[in-house]
Amino acid sequence: MYKYLLLLLFPVFVFSQSQKISGTVFNSKKEKLDSVKIELYNSENILIKSLFTNMEGNFSFENLSEQLFKLKISDEKYLSFEKSISAKSENEILNITLKNNHKDIEGVTLIKKKPLVKRKVDRLEFNVENSNISSLNAWEILKKTPQVTINNDILAVKGGTSVLVTINDKKVMMTGEELKNFLENTQGDDVKTVEVITNPPAKYEAEGGAVLNIVMKKNKIEGYRGVLSSKYIQTQYAKAVAGLSQYYKKDKLSIMGSYFRGTGTYYREGTDFVNYPEDGTIWISTMNRKDQAKSQNTVNFNVEYEIDSLTTASLNYSGYFNPKSFGTYNVPTLIYNSQNVAESNYTTINDHHSRTINNSLSFQIDRKLNKKSSLSWINYFTGNNSSKYQNVLTYLNFANQTPRETNFMTNNKSDVQLYSTQFDYQWKNDKLELESGGKYSFVKTDSQLDFSDNESGEFQYRPEKSSLFDYKEHNFAIYTSMAYNLEKWSFKGGLRAEMTDLEGIVSEPYEVNKNNYWSLFPTFYAQYTTDNKHEFGFSYGKRISRPSYSWLNPAKSYYNLFSYYQGDPKLKATIIHNLNLTYSFKNWNVDFYYRKELFPSMEISFQQHENNNLIYYFTNIEKGQAFGLSLYKSFEIKPWWSLIVSENLEHNENYFKGIDGVLNRNKVWNWVSNISTSLTLDKNSDWKMELGHKYYSPGIQGTFTISSQWSAYFVMNRKFFNKKLEAAFIFNDIFRSTQQKVSTKYGNQDNYFLDYQDTQGFTFSLKYNFGNQSVKNSKTIKKADEQERL
């Protein structure tokens, strides 16, 4: 009986036997290639399976039910491979050889592609991974990003300076020198892309006019590797940075940690000119600022763990510690009468030191719910603690007065704490994408200014010049957005609602400022792509720019007896409307844009003629608006020689009320030009060099008119010892041409200052790679198989 049953079932066993395709992938040197992606399509050209070759270059597709297939291999390092094949039940091995994807040009070889600019419906994507600028740090990469300019270390996107910086969509809780320091110590090899988002979608918080999102590469290298780096900078004085970055990946665990320590002396030259026409005097002060920072410490730590193939948890910590920055300024001031004779003078000696501590911690869980949807939960905490102390001694020698001296001291302490939690949900198929989520954040800042002087002959605390400032802000936001792709058309729209509840308490004079408001922030995008790849786009977005916490502090921070800085606790948030028309074709990217700002807040200067005081303070002006054209184009002159042209022409207007209440208009046509050329000289050592030129025509900021400036730079990179050691040389501001004149002139306001920020100098850096530097991540296949079960 069993024999007959076996005989009947034997044909079923034969015809149900699974088919198999397997083989090995080599390069032209007959070396086996690992981590090469292979895709298998059926006879109807539908993708069935995909996998990566293992460490020995082998692959195997098993349990195949069909007979005819198409095998495809696409890898940026090699030419595409495609082959029709039939599955075999026997163990027949395919040997596939991939050809290199580059050409040798008489000893000069382009071995790295130039940065790729890709236009998406809601952003411009600058792909720097494996490009000829990936050896730079993240700060230098931002300088080369389309539509981004950095002038006097101030970031701007298409002329707008309200910019939010994020890393992997997480807000970087740093500004100014701290942000620059952090990005300078972020390795360009770890950067995948920079996304320029001039109209951020509803998912992003409404704060800031534009978003620069730095997307970091995931660590795909199994095992341990490290990067030891050092940098020497010589400007007026020397500076140096050294650090260690370490990476470890094993199975589901990935860890990255880095520490950088910097030291050096910072220098800045300035000259102030103040004209008081009412008494016919001109005050001229010369300030050469020299500050030393012997220990600037930057720490970054990230751990990521795959709980399962659908759930990932990550923890990130970043910190910046500058325990002491100190200096002594000797500032002489000459006072000229109407006959241009120096009849009076005074000298200020400012002895000061400061401390800064910044800690940021984030925790995130990402969960795939099914093939189409996912959920993320992100938590942030940031603490910023700083203190600034100064002892100001002034020697006064005024005409018709007895020479005398005065002395005052200030101690300014501030503590800022921020916490936020955010949920994001995403659903996506081939044509439709839905996003929604909510966020809550809380900010608390405490500032204390203690003022003492010796007007009575001995030092006494002056409560009327001291101040306590406490500020609290709650923000709750919900959003939803939808994107739809219809053949040649792409659409995206969204709406974000934010509730802000704030309270500021000033001690001297006592004042309480409260405000509670809801705001709606709509966004809309449309993009059309023709058959020959011309791309036309339109976008609109409404944004808000809230004042920095330090801008709200009304305490007077004195520079000397006759000049101080002051914030305003009643500063309004700025509402920004952005309109963009875009065009892209091949390497051409053109933007026409319009920006309108209601009550923009900014720093301006103000002369008090009755006591000869010059005051710098933050305030809201009436409005600002700008329209312009931005162009970015990369030219490949030769396979080893490229040219990049980035231009921005803008008409900018600022409307402000003068001290007499009259509405004034400050306007200018502003042109920013950035042209660079780069060459790859040798394929074996990655020997590259670049020469560039930047030009800024005159600009404006509220009451200020800012003069033009330009600079030229030179960069050279080369690798040694089988590319484990990399050396770089950078010469910035070759002709020392970056000095600017910032002037105010309207009504009875007539002052300006000359500013040079010590930009001329050279940088020499070394970077040594050790440990495992090759990708051997066989786990990718396992993860893909598990996700197929969704």
Automatic annotation (TrEMBL):
InterPro entries for this protein: Beta-barrel_TonB_sf, CarboxyPept-like_regulatory, OMP_b-brl_3
One Pfam entry for this protein is OMP_b-brl_3
Region forming the signal peptide: none
Keyword terms, alphabetized: Cell outer membrane, Membrane, Receptor
Name its cellular compartments.
Cell outer membrane
Q: Where are the transmembrane segments?
A: none
Question: Which residue range or ranges hold the Outer membrane protein beta-barrel domain?
Answer: 370-768
User: What is the protein named?
Assistant: TonB-dependent receptor family protein
Its taxonomic placement starts with:
Bacteria, Pseudomonadati, Bacteroidota, Flavobacteriia, Flavobacteriales
